[in-house]
Amino acid sequence: MKDHPKRLYFIDAMRAWAILMMLQGHFIDGLLDPAFRDPSNLAYSVWKYFRGITAPVFFTVSGFIFTYLLLRAPRQGKDNPRLRKGIKRGLELIAIGYLLRSNIFGLLNGVIYPSFFLVDVLHCIGIAILLLIALYLAVPKGKTMRLGLVLMVFGMVLFLFEPLYTNWDLSYMPTALANYFTRANGSVFTIIPWVGYAFTGGFIASLFYRFRQLNYLYLKSMLLFLMGGIALIWYSSPVFEWMGLQTGVSLFQDIASNNYLFIRLGDVLLVFAVFILLRGLMQQKLFLSIGQHTLSIYVIHFMVLYGSLTGIGLYAYWHHALTPVQAILGALFFMLFCTWAALKYNHHRETIREALKQLMVWTITRVFRIVNLCYRQARMLWGRLSRLLSGAART
Which of 27, 56, 208, 392 is most exposed, with minimal Cβ within 10 Å? Predict the structure, then answer.
């Protein structure tokens, strides 16, 4: 147990688990017939609870990974090479998020559907990365623990004040902007409170980096995660209720009555504890490779399930139409296919990118030729029309 981590393999394993859980969760939730969604059914209740853990784990791990890489870089402060990569990555995720919600046929007809402006996981993670960079730059260089405390404070503020901003009326804002803050228009995730999990992941990463040379780091961190997770799941609601009674502040009572953020954070800490405990079993190349290519898996699953770009996906044909057996078998096949396709894509990524680049150049060249031809034809027609009008005016 006296191991000082160089690469935190259990984080890649957690990310792999989270993306696979997301795949099956989206598939079953989108295609299972509502007649079989019985809360009294133990199997369904367990599945639904674990499905609720997926997004918090994904956000927390994303914040952890990016912050840990920031702190581990050879140069710190404004010279940190991860800053430019992070900004590029954050903007890239936001762009991909919008691209996945676009529809080619609608664009060809000059129509942008309202779903294009909805905010999802990729948008939020992209914004979270940009905010992590901003907070990193705001803290003096080399102050690892101060950065961690700042991230923890911002994360807890987002969680604590959720009952206040969840009912904001943002109808005065442009819909594309309001969707980042409210789910009233159909956004699945919003930057508040979900970015709070990324900040929490950054705080945990700062602790891991600060104490990376500590003996028995994994054992001690596992015990802390275990105790923290149990405390948040079982005792956070009673504590907030007690605080409300003692202070008379209704905010604490509101948190206690709908305490999903802190309870889910407790679930996340327990997941951390489990993966640290089992880290020796999770260094298989395939599992780690899945964790390192979650973006490709996410993009492919979105296109296959929801029909991104084309509008043709499984959702269009079997939306809420499958039996439990069909949904479970379909989810397993769906997970295997998306993972296989993503790994194949990454294996041949350079070849595919070169082919796409050539296709893009060919397309742009053809478009310019057509535009040039149309321009020449328009000039010719305009010349003829001008001569006809001039002749008619003289007569």
Answer: 392
